Each structure stands twice: as C-alpha cells, then as structure tokens.
Amino acid sequence: MPAAASDTQRCGPHRRTDFSHTGLPQPLQLADTGLPPLQADSLLRQLPGRREVFAGRWGEQAVVIKRFCGRRARRYWQREQQGCLALQRAGLATPQLCYSGWLVDGSPVLLFEHLPQPQSALACWQQATSDSERLALLGQLVGLIGQGHRQGLLQTDLHLENFLLSNGRLYAIDGDGIRQRRAPLRERSCRDNLALLLAQLPCRHDGLLPEVLPLYGLARQQPLAADFTARLRPLLDRARRRRRQAYVKKASRSCSEFVHQQRFSQLALYRRDAESAALQAFLRDPDTFVQGAPLYKDGNSATVAWVSTAAGDWVIKRYNIKGFWHGLSRGLRPSRALISWRNAHRLVSSGIATPQAIALLEKRFGLWRRSSYYVTARCDGESAALLDGTHLPQQQSRITSLVDLFRQFHQLGIRHGDCKASNFLLQGDTVQVIDLDALTEYRWRWLFLRRYAADRQRFLRNWPVDSPLRRHFDRLLP
User: Fold this and answer.
1) Which one, of 26, 184, 7, 19, lies nearest residue 102 by Cα?
2) CA-based Rg of the chain, rounded to a whole angstrom?
3) Crossing angle for the helix pair 209-220 and 131-150, to the nearest 10 degrees
4) pLDDT in tens, 401-452
5) Reduced to 3 states, what is the DSSP secondary structure of residue 239?
6) Cα 417 to chain centroid, rounded
7) What's the CA gap between 371 and 339, in Å, rounded?
8) Which of 20, 312, 360, 439 has the CB geometry, 3.0–4.6 Å to 343, for a possible disulfide?
9) Structural contact between residues 419 and 458, judged by C-beta atoms closer than 8 angstroms
10) Model pTM?
C-alpha cells in the first residue's frame, strides 16, 4: 500500500514552485523527511498549470513522479490516486502506486514504479507494419478495456498514450479518468466507451473490427449481442468527429503542443516543438523569407515559396490581398491560412498524411485580417499527375493508396475541394494531401455526397477520357 501523508502535510500551504531552464522544480523534496530522498532526472510530460511528470529515483528505486499544481491540484491528486487504486483492485495491469503525499512546497505528489523500457500504445501502433501486429496490439487493448468493463470501470480519457507496453505486457496508466461503478457496465455504456478507444485509430483499419470485437467479448466474459457491431458503427463515427473537432480547437490555443500569440497587429499560431530563432525571425518579418526564395507559385491570390532555414526546409504559402474589394470581402472572415492550419490538424487527427503544419501568421488591424501565411515542412513527394495508364501493375500500390484516401474522405464526410492531381503528393505508398484551404468537413451526409461527387469527377478529369488509369479509378473510387 502507498505511504500516506499526515494530516499536517495534507493541510500544508500551497506555495508556488520555481522552475529551472531544464523544467525541473527546484528543489524536488518530499515533506516527510524520514523517507528516502527523491530525485527527478528528466521531464516526461507537462500540462501547464496542472501537472508535471518526471522520471527519477526514490532512494534506490526507479520511479515516475507526478507532481500536481494549480488551484485544483488537490482534487486531481485525489482523483488520480483513487483511479489507480481502483485499477489495482480490479486486477488490471497498472504500475504500482508506491507513495502518495506532499512535497515541501505543498504540492501533492504521487510516485509510481518505473516500468522497464516502456512504450506507449500509440508508438507501438505507429511502428506496426502489418495487420497481424496491429491486431495483436488491439487484442491487448480491448482485452484490458473489457476486463475493466466487467469490473465496473469506465475510462473517460481513453487514448493510446494512456497505455504502456513493457516486456510484452500492456498496462493502463493515468487513473484520473477512471470512474468506478457498482456493477458491470451496461452494454450501451460499453459501446460508448469502446467507440471512444477505437476512434483513435484511422478508419482505414476498420476492417480489423470483426476480429477485434470477439476478443473484447471474451475479456468481458459476456457474449456480444448480434447487433453489437451495427450499433457500434454510428457511435464510432460520432466519436471520431468529436475527436477531430476537439483537436482542431486544441490547435488554435496555447497548450503543451501549440503556442497562440495575439496582438493588435497580428495573430500567430505555431508548434511549440518548432520554436527556434528562424521561426521568431519569420514571425517578425515574414516577407523577407518569401522575397528572393525559389517559388513554386507566384499568383495574384497566393505566393508559394520554398525556404531553407537552420530549423529545416519550409514551404511558405502567402495568401495575398488582390485589391480593395478583395480585402473588404476577406477582412472579417477566417483567413485561408487559418483554414489550412485547422484542416491540417483535422487530417492529422484522422490518420491522413499532410505536410506538418509549423506555423500560421495573420497580419491584422485589430480584428481586420489582411495578408496571411501558412508554413509547413517541405514534402518531396511526386505529383499524382505523373501516374499514367501504361504500366498499371507497377503503379498498383500507389493507385491503391489514392483509392484508400478517397475511401477515407468518403467515410469521414470530408471533401477536399480542389482535386487536381498536383494536390496529392506520393511518397512511396503514402499520399500527402496539400492545398487545404478549400477542404470542408460536412455534418449532413446528403450534402457531403453531392459535394463529394464533384470532387470525384474533378479527380478523374486529371486523365484523358480514354485513359486506362481513369477507367481504373472510376471502377475503384467510392
């Protein structure tokens, strides 16, 4: 059982902790001086104003340290502790809670055993190269979830980074999202919770569901209803839509992944891990990066430049204001750069490849938008326009990738809006989607199908009517 904090420690003052440039609190010391010393070695994760997670040592034992901060620190600490203990009581694999108490600065802290060579389920999924590897991982995931449902556990924060694989065994972490029920979960709650987990996976892998769901039923020790899969499908679609929308909102505010800066004269959004001297120079004077750089396009409405910086090779797309009336029509609407930024993260959250969005910049006068800039990592793929119908067998893998992309668009209700072949770049068997300012996600299926039909026809027009490749695509595209 974890060591408990004394009443005096529980009521201790909640003071602010100073941070060094390494991100470690100074000092990191337990309030109970009779316990072994605590040392934080590296920062694993940080949720600003809420908690920090460190790898470290407690005496001779390797531990993971969770330090809670902010106004609700005590509430989150208690909820995390209760959730971890509920996982242990239910017999689910979870890291052992070694200590629960306080630091000398009044911050609540939890210490967990450090698993050997841990790897998140998300990293394992991304590294999987075959359906058999994916099925093995999914089997462990749904088995753990089904076991929890049988014990009345509901995981409200189901995502793949809340599961760790160590020595071939899957562990559930992050007890904050665990809710305990008095009885096994009802089937509707099970479907909702399972949909929340499966929504993390790209829809192109939904073909694995017929093999995965029986494994869930075995873990739950209750046969699934005959219509379980049919009822799961709309819940899965809804969960995916909510997940996309949540990630798009996250990409528009400051958080652990993104930085949001707004002043009277400009709005900037950029990836926190892309912050560099080159990026700050771009935000101060973006036009100097475009002037003199090699251009992919130099049009009235947009200028696209390739820029090599110390931080990497970028593609900068500047959306121009063509004149007074054009500026008047665009001034109070979301800029096309902002639309592209949002759509890039809409695609990423759906498992669809697009060049990594690095930054967005809007020149403004108060709320009035002027020119805007969208910065991505450079992608060296080949245009789909280079495909032809003369060697179909040799090009089959790339053709299949394009067909799979349109199937994903069709299932998710996403329309690209400008299906020129040059907007689909082929990197091996991966399709990178570019030019996102016309991409739209539709809520109403009937309206999407009308718009998708136009997208489909535009894509087919990239090749002559008598082209074997066009006829091949026409047979395969949904």
Assistant:
1) 7
2) 26
3) 30
4) 999 999 999 999 999 999 999 999 999 889 999 999 999 999 899 999 999 9
5) helix
6) 24
7) 13
8) 439
9) yes
10) 0.82
Separation of alpha carbons 358 and 274, rounded Å: 7
* Residue spans of alpha helices (H) in 251-293: 277-284, 287-290
User: Residue 98: is it exposed, middle or buried by C-beta count within 10 angstroms (0-12/13-18/19+)?
Assistant: middle
The number of C-alpha atoms within 13 Å of 288 and in the hemisphere containing its C-beta is 9
Strands of 430-433's sheet in order across? 382-383, 424-427, 430-433
Q: Smallest Cα–Cα separation from 98: which of 88, 431, 286, 107?
A: 88
What token pair was written down for 56? 């470290």
Read off the amino acid at residue 163.
F
Place of tokens 């087919």: 460
For residue 415 the two structure tokens come to 């329309």
Tokens of 10: 């529980």
d(CA 327, CA 330): 5
List, in sequence order, the alpha helices (H) in 357-467. 396-412, 445-460
397 SS3 class: helix
Q: How far apart are CA 297 and CA 4, in angstroms?
A: 65
Which stretches in the chain have pLDDT values below 70?
A: 1-27, 321-332, 389
Residue with tokens 């798009």: 248
Q: Which of 220, 224, 247, 211 is nearest to 351 (CA)?
A: 247
Q: Are 301 and 269 in contact (CB under 8 A)?
A: no
Q: Which residue has 């973006």 as its token pair? A: 286
Tens digits of per-residue pLDDT, 245-262?
A: 999 999 999 988 899 998
- Contact criterion met (CB below 8 Å) for 141 and 93: no
Closest CA to 316 of 302, 301, 326, 306: 306
Q: Which two tokens stand for residue 424?
A: 């689909």
Strands 153-155 and 178-180: antiparallel
CB 127 within 8 Å of CB 29: no
CA gap 375, 292 in Å, rounded: 17
Integer angstrom CA distances of residue 17 from 27, 41, 57, 222: 8, 17, 20, 50
Q: What are the tokens at 461?
A: 């027009």
Both tokens assigned to 350: 């759906």
Distance (Å, whole) CA 219 – CA 217: 5
Give the span between the Cα atoms of 56 and 30, in whole angstroms. 13
Give the helix, strand, coil percentages of the chain, each rounded to 5.
Answer: 40, 25, 35
Q: CB-based contacts of 351: which residues, under 8 Å, 6+ apart? A: 201, 202, 203, 204, 408
- According to DSSP H, which parts of 221-321 are helical? 228-250, 277-284, 287-290
